Fold this protein.
Amino acid sequence: MSGETSPPLCFETGKVRQELGLPGRVHSPVGTPLRRLTTQEAEAVGQLVPTILCGEESAVHVFYRGLATLPAEDRPAVLKVVTDETEHETMLSSLFDLCPTPDDIKLRRAKSKRFFMSMAVREPDIHFAQVSALDSGVCILMDELLRGHSAVLRNPDLTRIATRIKMDEATHVGVTRRATKTLGLPAKTYRDQAVATKQAFCDHLAYSADAFEALSVCPDKLFKRIVREIP
């Protein structure tokens, strides 16, 4: 690694990192091949990473802002989530540096930024419900990337990153679910928000369906599972 600061893809998180005393992202050398993946598979990874990376950048801000809406006893768990998300952001940023840059990267970045900005609402209980659904969706996405004949399983670094994110996001779902209860969100409202958010997430991911197929992950199965499994 060069030690240079890596620029954000969609949302700048440097101020949050600085205020919490967390390290900045580190820029990786560009052009290193992804071991044991074909060119098409490496390109597919490069197409998927921007969506997840933009989500992690957005999550850093969501959880940091959400701290102030919760009782003091609930804040340490949410603060741990912020730390986790910054670490995911760093890992995915480094991974993106190693992937072939998609020809439509500007469009992918714009679509992702627009999608995650559309999740912003004033009500903290609703916002936590949406984030809980998104975290669940990312957890399921990573799980599918770690199943069957997925090309991800042939690369130890990709496997490590996907496993780490899957495990952390499963924990984050529990934290955000508890936050909605603390803030008094009715169970039915939580479920309605989860279903709507997950469907919107799948609609967003559909743009990258070909990339999932290139990695031997069935997009239809993935999308159905994301919508079906409500935390």
Q: What stands out?
A: The chain has a mean pLDDT of 91. The first helix runs from residue 14 to 20. The chain has one domain: 14-228. The two ends are 38 Å apart (CA to CA).
